[in-house]
Amino acid sequence: MGFSNSPLAAVTLISPNRTVNRNHVIDTITIHCYVGQVTAERGLNGFAKKERQASCNYVVGYDGKIGLCVEEKDRSWCSGGYDKNGNPIRVNGISGKSNDYQAVTIEVACDNKHPYAITEKAMSSLIELCADICRRNGIKKLLWKGDKKLVGKVDQQNLTVHRWFANKACPGEYIYQRLGDIAAKVNAKLGVSGAFPAPAAPVSKVPYKVRITATDLHVRQGPGTDKDIVQKAIAPGVYTIVSEATGKGATLWGKLKSGLGWVSLDFCKKI
Length: 271
Prior knowledge:
This protein is α/β, with parallel strands linked by helices. Helix content is 18%, strand content 24%. It has helices at 40-47, 96-102, 120-137, 172-176, 179-190, and strands at 11-12, 18-19, 28-35, 58-60, 66-68, 75-76, 90-91, 94-95, 103-110, 159-160, 208-212, 219-220, 229-231, 237-246, 252-256, 262-264, 269-270. The strands form five sheets. The chain has a six-stranded mixed beta sheet with strand order 1-5-4-9-3-10, sandwiched between helices. The chain is globular. The chain starts with 10 loop residues before the first strand and ends with a strand.
Protein backbone atom coordinates (compact mmCIF):
# COMPACT_ATOMS: atom_id res chain seq x y z
CA MET A 1 0.00 0.00 0.00
CA GLY A 2 1.38 3.38 -0.98
CA PHE A 3 0.53 6.41 1.10
CA SER A 4 1.25 10.11 0.78
CA ASN A 5 0.70 13.11 3.04
CA SER A 6 -1.30 16.24 2.40
CA PRO A 7 0.57 19.10 0.74
CA LEU A 8 -1.77 21.39 2.69
CA ALA A 9 0.20 20.73 5.89
CA ALA A 10 2.30 23.83 6.56
CA VAL A 11 4.11 22.50 9.62
CA THR A 12 5.25 19.02 10.70
CA LEU A 13 6.10 17.55 14.09
CA ILE A 14 5.79 13.77 14.10
CA SER A 15 4.42 12.32 17.32
CA PRO A 16 6.09 9.34 19.00
CA ASN A 17 2.58 8.12 19.77
CA ARG A 18 1.87 6.12 16.64
CA THR A 19 1.93 2.62 15.19
CA VAL A 20 4.29 2.39 12.23
CA ASN A 21 2.68 1.12 9.02
CA ARG A 22 -1.11 0.94 9.14
CA ASN A 23 -2.54 -2.46 8.15
CA HIS A 24 -5.50 -1.19 6.14
CA VAL A 25 -6.16 1.05 3.17
CA ILE A 26 -7.46 4.52 4.03
CA ASP A 27 -11.20 4.49 3.41
CA THR A 28 -12.49 6.59 6.32
CA ILE A 29 -12.07 10.04 7.86
CA THR A 30 -12.58 10.74 11.56
CA ILE A 31 -12.94 14.37 12.65
CA HIS A 32 -12.17 15.18 16.29
CA CYS A 33 -12.24 18.40 18.30
CA TYR A 34 -9.09 19.63 20.07
CA VAL A 35 -10.46 21.48 23.09
CA GLY A 36 -8.96 24.95 23.06
CA GLN A 37 -8.51 27.50 20.28
CA VAL A 38 -4.90 26.47 19.65
CA THR A 39 -2.55 26.93 16.73
CA ALA A 40 -1.45 23.90 14.72
CA GLU A 41 1.99 24.22 16.32
CA ARG A 42 0.61 24.11 19.84
CA GLY A 43 -1.57 21.14 19.00
CA LEU A 44 1.41 19.28 17.54
CA ASN A 45 3.48 20.07 20.62
CA GLY A 46 0.77 18.56 22.81
CA PHE A 47 0.84 15.29 20.90
CA ALA A 48 4.66 15.27 20.90
CA LYS A 49 4.60 14.35 24.60
CA LYS A 50 5.12 10.61 24.85
CA GLU A 51 3.34 10.40 28.19
CA ARG A 52 0.14 11.69 26.57
CA GLN A 53 -0.18 8.43 24.63
CA ALA A 54 -2.37 10.10 22.01
CA SER A 55 -1.99 11.60 18.55
CA CYS A 56 -3.77 12.23 15.26
CA ASN A 57 -2.77 12.45 11.61
CA TYR A 58 -3.48 16.19 11.26
CA VAL A 59 -4.16 19.18 13.49
CA VAL A 60 -6.15 22.15 12.17
CA GLY A 61 -5.46 25.33 14.15
CA TYR A 62 -8.00 28.06 14.88
CA ASP A 63 -6.39 30.19 12.15
CA GLY A 64 -6.80 27.44 9.54
CA LYS A 65 -3.15 26.39 9.50
CA ILE A 66 -2.71 22.63 9.15
CA GLY A 67 -0.06 20.53 10.92
CA LEU A 68 1.07 16.96 10.19
CA CYS A 69 1.28 14.93 13.40
CA VAL A 70 1.38 11.32 12.16
CA GLU A 71 2.09 10.40 8.54
CA GLU A 72 -0.80 8.79 6.70
CA LYS A 73 1.20 5.59 6.26
CA ASP A 74 1.05 5.14 10.04
CA ARG A 75 -1.84 4.68 12.48
CA SER A 76 -2.50 7.51 14.89
CA TRP A 77 -3.64 6.86 18.46
CA CYS A 78 -6.79 8.93 18.33
CA SER A 79 -10.16 7.21 18.54
CA GLY A 80 -9.78 4.57 21.26
CA GLY A 81 -12.02 4.22 24.28
CA TYR A 82 -12.77 1.72 27.04
CA ASP A 83 -15.81 0.61 29.00
CA LYS A 84 -16.02 0.56 32.80
CA ASN A 85 -14.38 -2.87 32.84
CA GLY A 86 -11.38 -1.66 30.87
CA ASN A 87 -12.36 -3.40 27.65
CA PRO A 88 -12.17 -1.59 24.30
CA ILE A 89 -15.55 -0.25 23.20
CA ARG A 90 -16.51 -1.88 19.91
CA VAL A 91 -19.09 -0.92 17.32
CA ASN A 92 -20.03 -3.72 14.93
CA GLY A 93 -16.89 -5.48 16.18
CA ILE A 94 -14.70 -2.47 15.37
CA SER A 95 -12.78 -0.71 18.13
CA GLY A 96 -11.39 2.81 18.06
CA LYS A 97 -7.98 1.28 17.44
CA SER A 98 -9.32 -0.61 14.41
CA ASN A 99 -11.00 2.58 13.21
CA ASP A 100 -7.68 4.41 13.28
CA TYR A 101 -6.08 1.78 11.05
CA GLN A 102 -8.71 2.64 8.41
CA ALA A 103 -9.08 6.37 9.02
CA VAL A 104 -7.18 9.58 8.61
CA THR A 105 -7.82 11.35 11.91
CA ILE A 106 -8.10 15.13 12.17
CA GLU A 107 -8.11 17.22 15.36
CA VAL A 108 -9.69 20.68 14.92
CA ALA A 109 -9.13 23.48 17.44
CA CYS A 110 -12.39 24.47 19.14
CA ASP A 111 -13.86 26.42 22.04
CA ASN A 112 -13.33 24.93 25.49
CA LYS A 113 -17.03 24.57 26.27
CA HIS A 114 -20.23 23.26 24.69
CA PRO A 115 -20.99 23.26 21.78
CA TYR A 116 -17.21 23.34 21.08
CA ALA A 117 -17.49 25.70 18.12
CA ILE A 118 -14.69 26.09 15.59
CA THR A 119 -13.71 29.18 13.61
CA GLU A 120 -14.65 29.96 10.04
CA LYS A 121 -11.01 29.58 8.99
CA ALA A 122 -10.69 26.20 10.68
CA MET A 123 -13.88 24.97 9.01
CA SER A 124 -12.67 26.09 5.59
CA SER A 125 -9.31 24.33 6.04
CA LEU A 126 -11.01 21.21 7.38
CA ILE A 127 -13.14 20.93 4.24
CA GLU A 128 -10.12 21.48 1.96
CA LEU A 129 -8.10 18.89 3.91
CA CYS A 130 -10.89 16.29 3.74
CA ALA A 131 -11.22 16.81 -0.01
CA ASP A 132 -7.46 16.39 -0.43
CA ILE A 133 -7.46 13.19 1.66
CA CYS A 134 -10.27 11.78 -0.47
CA ARG A 135 -8.52 12.61 -3.77
CA ARG A 136 -5.19 11.07 -2.79
CA ASN A 137 -6.70 7.91 -1.30
CA GLY A 138 -9.29 7.19 -3.98
CA ILE A 139 -12.31 8.00 -1.80
CA LYS A 140 -14.86 9.03 -4.41
CA LYS A 141 -17.47 10.42 -2.04
CA LEU A 142 -17.62 11.34 1.64
CA LEU A 143 -20.65 9.70 3.24
CA TRP A 144 -22.40 10.58 6.50
CA LYS A 145 -25.70 9.31 7.87
CA GLY A 146 -25.03 9.70 11.58
CA ASP A 147 -25.73 5.98 12.01
CA LYS A 148 -23.54 4.05 14.43
CA LYS A 149 -24.81 0.79 12.94
CA LEU A 150 -23.02 1.59 9.67
CA VAL A 151 -19.52 1.61 11.19
CA GLY A 152 -17.33 -0.54 8.95
CA LYS A 153 -19.72 -0.29 6.00
CA VAL A 154 -17.70 2.32 4.15
CA ASP A 155 -19.82 2.09 1.00
CA GLN A 156 -22.65 3.59 3.07
CA GLN A 157 -20.80 5.75 5.62
CA ASN A 158 -17.11 6.60 5.72
CA LEU A 159 -17.15 9.38 8.29
CA THR A 160 -16.87 8.18 11.90
CA VAL A 161 -16.76 9.96 15.25
CA HIS A 162 -14.83 9.38 18.48
CA ARG A 163 -17.99 9.40 20.62
CA TRP A 164 -18.99 6.07 19.11
CA PHE A 165 -15.85 4.40 20.44
CA ALA A 166 -15.46 6.22 23.77
CA ASN A 167 -17.48 7.93 26.48
CA LYS A 168 -16.70 11.37 25.07
CA ALA A 169 -18.56 14.27 23.46
CA CYS A 170 -15.95 14.44 20.69
CA PRO A 171 -16.19 15.97 18.10
CA GLY A 172 -18.54 18.26 20.05
CA GLU A 173 -22.04 19.24 18.97
CA TYR A 174 -20.88 22.08 16.73
CA ILE A 175 -18.97 19.77 14.37
CA TYR A 176 -21.27 16.78 14.86
CA GLN A 177 -24.35 18.69 13.74
CA ARG A 178 -22.50 19.91 10.64
CA LEU A 179 -21.00 16.61 9.43
CA GLY A 180 -23.64 16.20 6.72
CA ASP A 181 -22.91 19.72 5.49
CA ILE A 182 -19.16 19.10 5.66
CA ALA A 183 -19.58 15.94 3.57
CA ALA A 184 -21.68 17.82 1.02
CA LYS A 185 -19.09 20.59 0.67
CA VAL A 186 -16.24 18.09 0.34
CA ASN A 187 -18.20 16.23 -2.33
CA ALA A 188 -18.80 19.46 -4.22
CA LYS A 189 -15.03 19.96 -4.32
CA LEU A 190 -14.63 16.38 -5.55
CA GLY A 191 -17.06 17.13 -8.37
CA VAL A 192 -19.61 14.59 -7.17
CA SER A 193 -23.09 15.40 -8.34
CA GLY A 194 -25.92 14.97 -5.89
CA ALA A 195 -23.55 15.34 -2.95
CA PHE A 196 -24.61 12.79 -0.36
CA PRO A 197 -26.31 13.29 2.04
CA ALA A 198 -26.60 17.06 1.57
CA PRO A 199 -29.79 18.38 3.09
CA ALA A 200 -31.67 21.08 1.25
CA ALA A 201 -30.76 24.53 2.45
CA PRO A 202 -33.34 25.63 5.00
CA VAL A 203 -35.86 28.18 3.83
CA SER A 204 -36.52 30.72 6.57
CA LYS A 205 -38.92 33.61 6.77
CA VAL A 206 -37.06 36.88 7.06
CA PRO A 207 -36.39 38.98 8.93
CA TYR A 208 -35.27 37.00 11.99
CA LYS A 209 -32.70 37.41 14.74
CA VAL A 210 -29.51 35.43 15.30
CA ARG A 211 -26.98 35.32 18.08
CA ILE A 212 -23.28 35.45 17.16
CA THR A 213 -20.76 34.24 19.75
CA ALA A 214 -17.69 33.83 17.52
CA THR A 215 -15.07 36.53 17.93
CA ASP A 216 -13.54 36.22 14.46
CA LEU A 217 -16.54 35.95 12.14
CA HIS A 218 -15.95 37.94 8.94
CA VAL A 219 -18.56 40.21 7.39
CA ARG A 220 -18.34 40.03 3.60
CA GLN A 221 -19.57 42.22 0.79
CA GLY A 222 -21.64 39.38 -0.63
CA PRO A 223 -22.72 35.80 0.19
CA GLY A 224 -19.54 33.73 -0.12
CA THR A 225 -15.95 33.34 1.04
CA ASP A 226 -14.91 34.57 -2.39
CA LYS A 227 -16.41 38.00 -1.63
CA ASP A 228 -14.40 40.88 -0.17
CA ILE A 229 -14.18 41.21 3.60
CA VAL A 230 -15.71 44.46 4.83
CA GLN A 231 -15.10 43.78 8.52
CA LYS A 232 -12.67 41.19 9.90
CA ALA A 233 -14.60 40.48 13.08
CA ILE A 234 -18.16 41.33 13.96
CA ALA A 235 -18.76 41.89 17.67
CA PRO A 236 -20.62 39.04 19.41
CA GLY A 237 -24.27 39.83 20.02
CA VAL A 238 -27.77 39.66 18.53
CA TYR A 239 -28.31 40.71 14.91
CA THR A 240 -31.20 40.78 12.44
CA ILE A 241 -31.00 38.85 9.16
CA VAL A 242 -33.08 40.34 6.35
CA SER A 243 -32.13 38.08 3.45
CA GLU A 244 -30.61 34.64 2.79
CA ALA A 245 -28.49 33.37 -0.10
CA THR A 246 -26.45 30.27 -0.90
CA GLY A 247 -22.80 31.04 -1.49
CA LYS A 248 -19.81 29.18 -2.86
CA GLY A 249 -19.60 25.63 -1.49
CA ALA A 250 -23.37 25.52 -0.72
CA THR A 251 -22.95 27.59 2.45
CA LEU A 252 -26.02 29.54 3.56
CA TRP A 253 -25.38 33.26 4.17
CA GLY A 254 -27.43 35.97 5.83
CA LYS A 255 -27.56 39.68 5.07
CA LEU A 256 -27.35 41.98 8.10
CA LYS A 257 -30.15 44.50 8.59
CA SER A 258 -27.55 47.21 9.22
CA GLY A 259 -26.46 46.91 5.60
CA LEU A 260 -22.87 46.21 6.64
CA GLY A 261 -22.74 42.99 4.66
CA TRP A 262 -23.21 39.20 4.83
CA VAL A 263 -22.23 36.57 7.43
CA SER A 264 -22.06 32.78 7.21
CA LEU A 265 -25.12 31.37 8.99
CA ASP A 266 -23.05 28.32 9.98
CA PHE A 267 -21.70 30.52 12.76
CA CYS A 268 -25.02 32.07 13.84
CA LYS A 269 -27.64 30.62 16.16
CA LYS A 270 -31.18 31.51 15.21
CA ILE A 271 -33.21 32.94 18.08
